[in-house]
Design goal:
Length: about 600
C-alpha cells in the first residue's frame, strides 16, 4: 500500500523545487535591479521577466502613432521607451500574422479565378503524390463509367478553395479589426503615455485586455463555420481562450509594480496564445508548399539526376573507363584553344597596334621616301626631255602634267615611223619615261593600300575578339538577372518598383473604402478596412525603407506614411499625401520618369 504514494511524494518534491528556483530567481533579479543607478528604478521591474529573456530581433514595422513632438518628454525617455517596446511587440505580432494570412488568401483567390482546367490541374497535379493517385483513379473511373468525372473534380476544387478562402478571409477581418482598435487606443493614449507612462499604462492595458476578448469572440465563430464534409484534415484545436486581467484596482489611477508586471506578462501570454492559434488554423488552410506544388518537376529532376549519375559512374574510373578523363581533357584543350584564338591573341594584337604606333609610322615614312625618289626621278626625266624637244629652258618647278603632254605629243609623232625613230629618234626615250610614270602610279597605289591595311589592323583584332566579348556579355547579363531576380516590393529592378507603386494604389483604395463605410454607418466594416489599411502601410513602410535611406528621402517619406495611418487626419489630406508619394519620391517613381 505504500508504493502508490511514491508518485505523489515525487510530485510534491518537484513542485517545491520549482518554487525554490523561482524564489531565488526573483531575489537575484531584485539584487541586479538594485545596483542600477536610477531615480525611479522600480519601473524597471515592471517589464516582464518573460519579455526581458527574449532576444528576438525586431522587425521594422509601422511606427506607433505617437505625437511628433515626443522629444519634449526626454526626462522619462527610459520609461516611455519600455512602454513603446510593449506596444511595438503587439503591433509586430499582428502585422506578422496578417501577412501570413494575406499570402494564403491571395493564393487561394488566384486559384479560384482560374479556369476549370487549371482547377483540375491543381487538384490532380499540385497537391502531392497521394492527391495525384486519387485524382487519376477518379478520372479513370469516370471514363469507364461514362460519367462527368472532370465536372466532379471541378466542383470538388471549387468547394476546396472556397472553404479556405472563407475561413482565412474571416480570420483576416477579425485580426484587422483587432489591429485597428489597438492602433486607435494607442493613438488616443499617445501623449499621456509619453508624459506620464505610470498612470496611463494601466488604463491602456485594461483596454487592450478588453480588445483581446473581443477578438476571442469574433474568432470563436470559425468553429461553427466548419462544414461536416470539410476537406480540411483533422479537427480544430481547442478554441481560442485568452487570459483575463485580474479584477484588482482597475478603477484606481495607480498600480503597484507587481500588478503592472503581471498585466504586461498577461499581454505577452495572450500574444503567444494568439500566435499558436493562428499558426494552427493557417497551417490547416495554407497553400501547398513549393515542394508539394512542383513535386512532379522535382521527381523528374531527381530521376534524371539519378540516371545521369549512373551514366557518369559507368564512364568513370570507378568502372574502369577512361571516357570522363578523355572528355575533360578535350574540354580543357578546347577551352584553352578558344581562349588563345579569341581572347589572348586579339588582345595582344590590339596591344601591339596601340603601343607600337611609332615604329609602324617610321616604316611608313620610309615607304613614302621611296615613292618620292621615283617621283623626283620622273620629274628630272620630263624636264630634260621637254628642254631638248622644245629647245628652251624650263623652270625647276614646272608642272609634270604640262611636260608629260609634251612627251605624249612627241611620242605620237615618233610612232608614225616606229622602226626608224626607235633607232635614230626619241621613241625609246619617250617609252622609258612612260614606264617610269607607270612605276610611280603603282608605288603610290601600294602606299595607299598599305596605309589602309595598317589602319584596319586593330579592327581585324577586334573582330577576332567579338565571340569572347559576346560570351562575356551573356554571362554578365545572366549574373545581373540572377542578382535582380527578387521581384518583391523590397527588391531592386522594374518589377519591384511596380510592386511598391501598387502598394500605394492599394493604400489609396483602402482610404476611400474606409471613408465610404464611415459615411454609410458600417462601423464594423470600417474598422476591418482600417486594419487592412494599416497592414498595407506597414508593407509599404518596410518596402521603401532601404531605398529611401539610400536616396536621403527617408525622413520625409516615413512621416508621410505615418500620417496616412493616423485616424484623426482628414481623407482629403491623406489622398493628397498618396498623390505626393507617387510624384515626388524616387523609390516610388515609374522607371521611365527616372531616366
Amino acid at each position: 500500500m505504500e508504493v502508490p504514494a511514491a508518485p505523489a511524494t515525487n510530485g510534491n518534491e518537484n513542485k517545491g523545487l520549482k518554487t525554490l528556483i523561482s524564489l531565488y530567481s526573483s531575489c537575484l533579479w531584485n539584487r541586479v535591479v538594485g545596483f542600477v543607478p536610477s531615480s525611479d528604478s522600480n519601473f524597471l521591474g515592471k517589464i516582464p521577466i518573460y519579455f526581458r529573456g527574449r532576444s528576438r530581433k525586431r522587425r521594422a514595422c509601422l511606427p506607433l502613432p505617437l505625437p511628433s513632438n515626443s522629444l519634449q518628454y526626454s526626462p522619462v525617455t527610459t520609461e516611455a521607451s519600455r512602454v513603446c517596446d510593449v506596444l511595438h511587440d503587439i503591433l509586430e505580432h499582428i502585422f506578422s500574422n496578417l501577412h501570413n494570412i494575406q499570402k494564403n488568401v491571395q493564393f487561394w483567390q488566384s486559384r479560384a479565378e482560374g479556369s476549370n482546367a487549371q482547377k483540375v490541374k491543381f487538384m490532380v497535379l499540385e497537391r502531392g503524390p497521394q492527391a495525384f493517385i486519387e485524382g487519376t483513379i477518379q478520372l479513370i473511373h469516370g471514363c469507364v463509367a461514362e460519367g462527368s468525372s472532370i465536372k466532379n473534380i471541378c466542383l470538388s476544387a471549387s468547394a476546396h478553395i472556397s472553404e479556405r478562402i472563407a475561413i482565412l478571409t474571416n480570420l483576416r477581418c477579425s485580426l484587422a479589426t483587432f489591429l485597428a482598435e489597438v492602433y486607435m487606443e494607442i493613438d488616443r493614449f499617445g501623449e499621456e503615455l509619453l508624459r506620464d507612462p505610470e498612470n496611463s499604462l494601466p488604463s491602456l492595458l485594461i483596454r487592450i485586455n478588453g480588445l483581446f476578448f473581443k477578438l476571442e469572440a469574433s474568432v470563436g465563430h470559425l468553429h461553427a463555420m466548419r462544414q461536416c464534409d470539410s476537406s480540411v484534415e483533422g479537427s480544430y484545436s481547442v478554441p481560442l481562450l485568452f487570459e483575463k486581467l485580474p479584477e484588482i484596482n482597475q478603477e484606481g489611477s495607480q498600480w503597484t509594480d507587481c500588478e503592472i508586471r503581471d498585466a504586461i506578462n498577461l499581454v505577452y501570454q495572450n500574444l503567444e496564445k494568439l500566435d499558436s492559434y493562428l499558426s494552427y488554423i493557417v497551417a490547416k488552410h495554407r497553400k501547398p508548399r513549393k515542394v508539394t506544388q512542383y513535386w512532379i518537376r522535382y521527381t523528374c529532376g531527381v530521376v534524371g539526376l539519378s540516371v545521369c549519375s549512373m551514366w557518369l559512374i559507368g564512364h568513370s574510373r570507378l568502372m574502369g573507363s577512361p571516357d570522363i578523363d578523355n572528355w575533360l581533357r578535350e574540354a580543357r584543350d578546347s577551352t584553352i584553344s578558344f581562349f588563345s584564338d579569341h581572347v589572348e591573341q586579339p588582345l595582344l594584337s590590339i596591344r601591339d597596334e596601340l603601343f607600337e604606333t611609332f615604329r609602324k609610322r617610321h616604316r611608313g615614312m620610309m615607304d613614302l621616301e621611296e615613292v618620292q625618289l621615283t617621283s623626283n626621278s620622273l620629274h628630272r626625266m620630263l624636264l630634260a626631255f621637254s628642254e631638248q624637244t622644245k629647245g628652251q629652258k624650263f623652270p625647276e618647278n614646272a608642272p609634270d602634267q604640262e611636260m608629260l603632254e609634251i612627251v605624249m605629243a612627241r611620242y605620237e609623232k615618233e610612232l608614225t615611223h616606229p622602226i626608224t625613230n626607235l633607232l635614230n629618234g626619241e621613241l625609246a626615250r619617250a617609252m622609258l619615261i612612260q614606264v617610269q610614270k607607270l612605276k610611280l602610279d603603282i608605288e603610290t597605289a601600294m602606299l595607299e593600300l598599305n596605309q589602309i591595311l595598317r589602319a584596319n589592323e586593330i579592327n581585324f583584332a577586334i573582330l577576332a575578339a567579338l565571340p569572347a566579348f559576346f560570351l562575356s556579355l551573356v554571362l554578365i547579363m545572366l549574373v545581373r538577372a540572377w542578382f535582380k531576380q527578387d521581384t518583391r516590393a523590397e527588391g531592386r529592378g522594374r518589377i519591384a518598383r511596380l510592386q511598391r507603386r501598387l502598394l500605394v494604389v492599394e493604400v489609396e483604395k483602402k482610404i476611400m473604402q474606409y471613408r465610404t463605410f464611415v459615411d454609410q454607418g458600417m462601423e464594423k466594416d470600417a474598422q476591418c478596412v482600417y486594419g487592412l489599411l494599416l497592414y498595407s502601410l506597414d508593407r509599404l513602410y518596410h518596402a521603401v525603407e532601404r531605398h529611401a535611406k539610400a536616396t536621403g528621402e527617408w525622413q520625409w517619406l516615413s512621416q508621410d506614411i505615418i500620417d496616412l495611418g493616423k485616424p484623426s487626419l482628414q481623407t482629403e489630406y491623406k489622398l493628397r499625401v498618396t498623390s505626393r508619394l507617387e510624384r515626388v519620391y524616387d523609390c516610388l517613381l515609374p522607371s521611365l520618369k527616372r531616366q
